[in-house]
Design brief:
Rossmann fold, alpha/beta, five-stranded parallel sheet, 12 helices, 2 domains
Length: about 325
């Protein structure tokens, strides 16, 4: 085992366990990890501001559509299409769904019999806190053509919530796979899950999704001028089994992004470039007076927000999410 590194994981969502984090598991291949309250390295996410309390090497690892602030972090792992020397590595969050990723890439077996076995038209599965104007509007518009089955808590159209998302979606020909927002580069697991369920995703979110995914394999809303045009495209595919089968057999990924093992190897190489040198040699944040002043202001803003009405509400929500319901 390699050298011992003192690490803290902070500002992740409630219930986060470092040992189950991909970064922890990758680092464990080369280092002895000591989870410390006095860390040399802080890996932090976007669910708080505790990272500002540490003058350690800071590595930003967002769980949602948040871009890194390199005035605050030394390094970042994210989704944005950007280059900043040795300080940034692009690793979209959909790679965290390894099992679904494997199912997505296995599309060769799909036949006409598989089409006939699908009893539903289009699946929709989101939680109550995942409602957005785009998801709601498109759900309503597409339902005017054919009934969309909502199996999750949001807009549920069944007699109850379906707990297993993938099997539910797999019963349908299409899946509404809409991101929370449209941001260049941000692609969550919604598209991967829709492909893994052996459906044709109807995708909205990353306007440059075609840089990574094969737009011949799904309905890319960003290729159309209006929701009406998107729905007309869905109608054409729905009413033409030959076209549907062609899309279902088209690979979702054709470039290097298809090799998840290689992507993880590259991520580990990026992490090693941070953890192999001494702490001082790995530091990238500027020592300028302007940057230090900027960070002091950030700490003050975080403190003021914490005691604001909205900050207090957020704290209560986090505490409630930590409460484990009895089985």
């Amino acid at each position: 085992m390699g050298k011992t590194v003192k690490v803290a994981f902070v500002d992740f969502e409630p219930g986060f366990e470092p040992e189950k984090c991909l970064l922890y598991r990758l680092l464990l291949q080369r280092y002895t990890i000591e989870l410390s309250k006095e860390p040399d390295y802080v890996i932090y996410s976007n669910h708080g501001d505790r990272h500002l309390q540490y003058d350690s090497i800071r590595i930003f690892y967002p769980c949602e559509s948040i871009s890194p602030d390199f005035n605050v972090c030394d390094y970042a792992i994210g989704f944005d299409y950007l280059t900043l020397g040795d300080r940034y590595f692009r690793f979209p969050v959909y790679y965290l769904k390894r099992e679904a990723f494997g199912l997505m890439n296995d599309k060769t077996y799909f036949t006409s019999d598989n089409i006939r076995s699908k009893g539903g038209f289009c699946g929709f599965w989101y939680g109550l806190d995942e409602d957005t104007p785009e998801r709601g509007l498109f759900f309503e518009r597409l339902s005017q053509y054919r009934g969309v089955d909502a199996g999750g808590p949001l807009r549920n159209t069944l007699e109850g919530v379906v707990s297993e998302r993938l099997p539910f979606l797999s019963e349908h020909k299409f899946t509404i796979a809409f991101e929370e927002c449209s941001h260049p580069g941000y692609t969550s697991d919604v598209l991967v899950q829709a492909f893994a369920a052996q459906t044709i995703p109807i995708y909205w979110g990353n306007p440059f999704i075609g840089r990574e995914f094969n737009t011949q394999a799904f309905v890319n809303c960003h290729d159309f001028r209006s929701w009406s045009e998107v729905i007309e495209a869905v109608k054409r595919i729905d009413q033409n089994d030959e076209l549907y089968l062609k899309m279902m057999r088209t690979p979702a990924l054709t470039g290097p992004e298809r090799d998840i093992d290689r992507m993880e190897e590259n991520l580990l190489a990026f992490l090693s470039s941070i953890f192999d040198p001494t702490v001082e040699r790995a530091r990238r944040r500027s020592h300028s007076t302007a940057r230090i002043t900027f960070e002091k202001r950030a700490r003050l803003k975080a403190l003021l927000y914490r005691f604001s009405p909205q900050g207090i509400r957020e704290s209560i929500k986090r505490m409630l999410r930590k409460v484990r319901k009895p089985s």
